[in-house]
Design goal:
The structure is a single chain. The protein is mainly alpha-helical and 99 residues long. It folds into 2 domains: 51 residues; 37 residues, no CATH class. Helix content is 43%, strand content 4%. The protein contains 1 helix and 2 strands. It has a two-stranded antiparallel sheet with strand order 1-2. Strand 1 and strand 2 form a beta hairpin. The radius of gyration is 31 Å and the shape is flat. The N and C termini lie far apart (79 Å).
């Protein structure tokens, strides 16, 4: 009895996987058709993505970190991010803090 139940569950899971695959294919086809229609309308009306308020995806503005430490001998600076420079490695950072 338990093996019949297991076999039935296995069969149902396979059917579910097949249906999900069909759903995914239809959704992809629908998206492709919609994109083609949108492109045709935009071309016919000479519209750009900017006309629709679409902005280009850009990463966050990377602000350069302000230096926190300065080597008194060379004047080199370090923000405290990334690898430690050789002039500060193994030493107390307080001595190199920029006031």
């Amino acid at each position: 009895m338990a093996t019949e139940s297991s076999a039935k569950l296995l069969q149902m899971r396979q059917q579910l996987a097949d249906l999900q695959s069909q759903i995914d294919e239809e959704e992809a086809k629908g998206r492709g058709d919609a994109i083609e229609q949108i492109k045709a309308i935009m071309t016919a009306h000479s519209l750009t993505p900017e006309d629709l308020g679409v902005k280009h995806k850009r990463g966050p503005n990377k602000k350069k970190s302000e230096p926190k430490y300065r080597d008194p001998a060379s004047g080199a600076t370090w923000s405290g991010m990334g690898r430690e420079p050789s002039w500060i490695k193994g030493k107390k950072r307080e001595k190199f803090l920029i006031a």
